[in-house]
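During data preparation, a discrete fold description was generated, as reproduced here:
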Amino acid sequence: MKILEATAREGHTYRVIVGSGALSMGDWSRYTGAMIVYDTSAPRWGVEELARGIASSGLEARLHGVAGGEALKTLDSVLNIIDSMAEGGLDRWSVLVAYGGGSVSDTAGLAASLYMRGIEWAVAPTTMLGMVDASVGGKTGVNYGAKNMLGSFHHPSQVLVDTRIALQLPWAEYLRGLSEVVKHGVIKGWSMLEDLEARAGGLASRRPEDVEEVVASSLEVKLGVVARDPRERAGVREVLNLGHTVAHALEKATGYKLPHGDAVSIGLVVELRAGVELRGANPVLARRVEDLLSRLGLPTRVPSGVGEALLGAVWRDKKRRGHVIRLPIAYDAGDVRVEEVPMERLVEVLRRVAEPA
């Protein structure tokens, strides 16, 4: 079991508990009421364990089931959660618990930020992507005409990352979360990347101690970045977009049929290669990251037939300002800098380095 400290803003920190049994380690003693918003497709035993922990503090948790996935992220879903909180008599000193993947925490977190001008909330992620990335950072939001158009920064009061769930995930879903882990390794440095290389076999076989260690180290990287820029105002958090310019373009180019984790894996490889041409970045890093992703069973090649659509989607990226885009460039492991790159030059390089499968 590992306990990490997260910084939401000056003077406000919260705990992130990582390991087997984390769901039973929540602190509910200071609340007057509680409601669990849970993904109905997530393991039911996790909901029951959370409810028992809350009951041990003298509270009875209200349950609100939802269907996870991108379709959940609407204003109607937020209002349904708010209605349920009101019907359950939750007051300003109550807590909302989000048990599910990123769509559940995005939606429930926004509801918590609005209810009675903001109540505390907790996150218990049930997807690998949620465990290693989406559960921390304080971003909440729903789609409204565009992805995450409406949202807020509302950091949780605690995060319970129970790695038992990771061991039960469908195989492909588990693997896809590892792409964000590798991204965090590039940001952190060679020490973490080499550790991931050494643990690749254990991760591929879901050895519990390797899963726990890697989830914790990944969260430590993101928490370190977020602590320097809790509300994404200083530009520090832009390094977390590494691999995501191409990844988001791939998702659009494939009509969102390509899962996000797969897109991030391919995006990392393509952007690291692009960095070699654009800025003379270390080519050894690009090769070793590609090899590591392949060993973990993740894709590293752009799907055939989407090359031109990919380039078009990159050109329409929301980070573009006129004819330049702010792009994280990994000069080496542990040396990621966000720089302005001319769009025409980026597209020219991507045309060469984005090799099809």
Observations:
- The mean pLDDT is 94.
- The radius of gyration is 20 Å.
- Residues 177-353 form a domain with the Dehydroquinate synthase-like, alpha domain fold (CATH 1.20.1090.10).
- The CA atoms of residues 94 and 238 lie 33 Å apart.
